[in-house]
Task: structure prediction
Amino acid sequence: MNKVLPIKDLETIKKIKRYYTKNKIYREYLLFLLSLNTGLRITDILSLKVKHVKDKKELVYKDPSTKIVKKFPLNRQIREIAEKVVGSRKDNDWLFISVTGKKLERTLIYRKFKAVCKELGLSKKYSVASLRKSFGWHYYEQYNDLSYLAYIFDQNSIHDTINYLGIKEDLNKRFHKEFKL
Result:
């Protein structure tokens, strides 16, 4: 199995954002933004209803397996794209639907994201799982808060989070470089 990488380069993230906006692919753009800014799994995001984002400044998500309620701020960019995606749809409609009105499946999103990456000449090691990892990697880089990430990712230990994000080498380098007595 190929290892999926986080998107560490902010320019690459901007490149993907420009692709979605230029081509007016707002549905996938909203999914991209939600995953990058919340760390939720794609399957969790695909289970969202219109009522979760319509006229909201915060996404309140109850994990179906743990029953834990998590809250995520919805920035202005997400709210604007959500408004375009939602339109006049009803609160209990799926947020992400196909042209036939059915709930989107993860496999379709996977294929579409891989196609975008290929078209933009990006790494073959990027997939929809990269988005969640990207959230974690960038959050860690900004705040160094592994316990919060373990909570968001529903992982049992910080060790699991370190392995998931692939930051073990970064931690080793950081320790040796900065440690003095």
In short: The longest helix spans residues 128-143. The chain has a mean pLDDT of 93. The CA atoms of residues 3 and 74 lie 30 Å apart. Residues 10-123 form a domain with the hpI Integrase; Chain A fold (CATH 1.10.443.10).
